[in-house]
Structure formats: structure tokens, C-alpha cells
Amino acid sequence: MKNLFSAIFILTTLTVNAQFFDFSAKRDYKKIENSNLILDYENYLSNHPKSKYSEIVTLKLKCLQRNLDWENASKKNTISAYQEFVEKYKKWWLDCDVNINNEIPEDPVNRALKNISCLRIEKEWNVCKKFDDSIHYNLYLNYYHRGFHLCDDEEFITWTLVHASDRIFEDSLWHGAELHQTILKYNDYIETYPNGKYLADAIDNIKLISDWISTKTENTYQAYTEFRNNNIDSKFADSAKMCLKPFEQKDWAKTQKINTYTAYSAFEKKYTDGYYYDEAEKAIVEMEFAKVKKKSPVSNWMPMKFDETTARDKEFSIIDMENGTAFPINVLLSGPESKRFTILPGDTKTFKLKNGTYTLSGSIDKAFYNPYWGTENFVGYEYSAKWIIKNQYGGYDPNFSDEYLNRNLKSILDSLKTNKK
Question: Which of 90, 182, 225, 314 is most buried by a 10 A CB count?
Fold first, then answer.
């Protein structure tokens, strides 16, 4: 009898406890039923893991978590944030319409995919705006029309498509004007796009063409020279140079007939980049060499040093010339190219020269100094030379200067006076 009483007591206790826990789970659920706090649902599941309400609480918890993740992705509003959201929830089939107050879209994954598409289109459009040319606008249109998008921002897309098409047409109209290069075509562009991308260029080109037409009508050396000097980088600069050629040919024939240093120098000054400038320079260098050889008939040239470890060039050699004297050195070179220049005391001049055999000389403007000259064969290495002055004993005198010359000249004159007495 005692055992039977114990069993009944235990059974009654278990029943009461079950009813108590079921009542407690229901009471706690009523408290959080309309809550939007994730922590409330997590605490409920922790306290009532096997409650009959646990399934709906779990669903609400997942929906709230997805809602939070969606809000975070929306705040960041980046492709990577939306991609992360899609990757996390693409396989979740959740009915979040229940008591979520419509705070998230019915299908946030699909919304995320659309936003990703919109951001990608915006990115492509920003690239177009950066380059602002028909190539990138065409790429944008191809990207859109191939259907690689889900973006539903119709206003933005419509605006970009219209703008891209307009930009492509503007570029096409401009390139047509550039191809024909007529005032009529440039005016067509300006009338169609009075505030266009190429407006300033169109106005400049109209003026340039007008000036070129006026120059050809005048057809004088002065007109072509003035036009070319004012428009040296223009598309008509080479044409102006071609139109100058007959005037230059005529002057060149006269210069050759006169055949003097003064005539060639005047020709070079007038035609600084003319067709016959190099020939005039060669004639001047040859005249200078004639003076050098007259003053010093016998060549005293020593071969220049060159670096055989450097790569050999088939067309050009590199020359380094250092002036180790106290005077400006006048250098002459005659061969495949003709050059003349002056190296100041202590300076080094480096220049490129076509390979071949050259006659070279160096001289100073002093009566008691003989020029140094001879021949050199340049075959594509790097060559170097240092100009120095030797004294009467053949040694190098670093103190050789105007003062040195004046002092020694006075000694010579004093000696002559003494001998005369």
C-alpha cells in the first residue's frame, strides 16, 4: 500500500511539473511574441529548448538575424557586402512574413542580387565617365544589352543608355569633322553640340583652317613662315614647310653661287629647320676645317679611348668630350654628319653621332695656339676624350691661361729688346 502511494505521488508530481513548465514556456513566449530583439529569442530557446513554441521562435530568430544582416549589407551598400549576404542565405527557404512587421523584403536574396547588378552597372558607368570616349560607351551598351544585369533602377539605366548613345553619336560626328577637316563639318558639330566635349577644339580648328586658307592665298615666304611659327604643332605645319621649299630652293641656289661663310651663315639663320640646313652646316664646317689645316698642316691626332665592354650599336656611337683647359674649345666634326660647337672650360659635352669616319678638330681663339686635328673611325662604342694644352716641351700645363700667355709674351718681348740693345 505504501509503495502504491509513492508511485501515485511521483506520477502526480511529474504531471504538475510538466504542466508548470508548459505554462512557463507559454508565458515567456507571450512576452517575446512581438519582440524584434534577437537576444529575447535566444534566451527563450536557452530556457525552453523543447517547448512547443521553439520551432516558431527558431524561425523568428533566423528571420531577425537575416534582417540584421540585410540592414548591415544595405548600410555598406557594396558588391562584396551583398555577395556575402547572398552566399549566406541563398539556400535558406524562410517564411519571414510572420510577425516581422514587413521590415525586410519578401526575398532579400533577390533584392541583394539586383543591388549587386545595379552597383556593377554604376561601376561600369563610372569607368565610361572617366574615359569619356565612344569605345567605353559602346562597351557599356554591350554589357547592358547582353543581359548581364538584374538592376531594376529604370530611371538611372534609361538615363545612362541615352547619355551613352548620345556620347557615341557626338564622337562619331567629331571624328567625321576631323577626317574631312573643313569649316562646314566643324560648324555642323558646333550646331549639334553647342556645349559639346570638343567645342573648344572645333572653334580652334575653324580659326586654324581660316588662317591656312588666307596664308595659301597670300602665297609668300613671310606668310608661310609666320603661319608655321604660330602653328608649329598643328596639322598644317608640315604643309607650310612644303610650301616654303620653293623659296628655300631659290635662296639655296643663290647661297651656293656666292659660296662664302657669311652667305651660308645667313642661310642657316633664315632656314633653321630647312631642307638644306645640313648642307649649309657641312659647307661651313669644311670652310672652318680649311682654316684649321692651313694653320696646322700636319695631323697630330691621337685615337680616342673607347669602352669595348659596352654594347655595340650598329648605327650610332656615344661621344664624351671634356674641356680640361682654361679656354673655350671650338670643336669641328666632318663625316656622315657635320657638327660644330663650343665646350666651355671644365664642361663635358655628350652627344650621339652616326657611325663612320670623321675628321675632328679642337681649337681656341688664341694666336699662339695650334689646332689639334685628325681622323677617327666610330663603330658604335662609347668614346671619350679630354682636351688639354701642351707646353713647348710636350707636357701638360694645367695653369695654361690668358695670364700665362701674357706673362710669357712679355718675357719674349723683353728678351727681344735686350738682344736689340
Answer: 225
Secondary structure (DSSP) of 176-241: HHHHH--HHHHHHHHHH-TT-TTHHHHHHHHHHHHHHHHHHHH--HHHHHHHHHHTTTSTTHHHHH
Listed range (224-238, 352-366, 390-404) with the worst mean pLDDT: 390-404
Question: How buried is 199 (Cβ within 10 angstroms: 0-12 exposed, 13-18 middle, 19+ buried)?
Answer: middle
pLDDT over 70 at 343, yes or no: yes
Closest CA to 338 of 281, 420, 406, 295: 281
CA distance 176 to 170: 10
Distance CA 348, CA 335 (A): 22
Residue with grid cell 567625321, as numbered in its chain: 176
**pTM, rounded to two decimals:** 0.53
C-alpha cell of 251? 635662296
In angstroms, the CA 205 to CA 177 distance is 10
Grid coordinates representing 87 are 552566399
On the question of pLDDT at 231 being above 80, the answer is yes
Residue 181 backbone class (left: φ over 0; alpha: ψ -120 to 50; beta: rest):
left
Asked if 246 contacts 273 with a C-beta cutoff of 8 angstroms, the reply is no
- Better-scored residue on pLDDT, 302 or 356: 356
Hey, what's the torsion of the CAs at 110, 111, 117, 122, to 10 degrees? 180
For the segment 197-213, what is each residue's pLDDT rounded down to a tens digit? 999 999 999 999 999 99
Q: How far apart are CA 354 and CA 349, in angstroms?
A: 16
241 contacts 229 by C-beta, under 8 angstroms: no
Query: Could you tell me how many residues make up the chain?
Result: 421
Q: What is the dihedral of CA 34, 37, 40, 43, to 10 degrees?
A: 140
State how far the Cα of 156 lies from the Cα of 350, in Å rounded to an integer: 60
pLDDT in tens, 84-120: 998 888 876 656 654 444 444 557 888 888 888 888 8
Grid cell, residue 103, equals 521590415
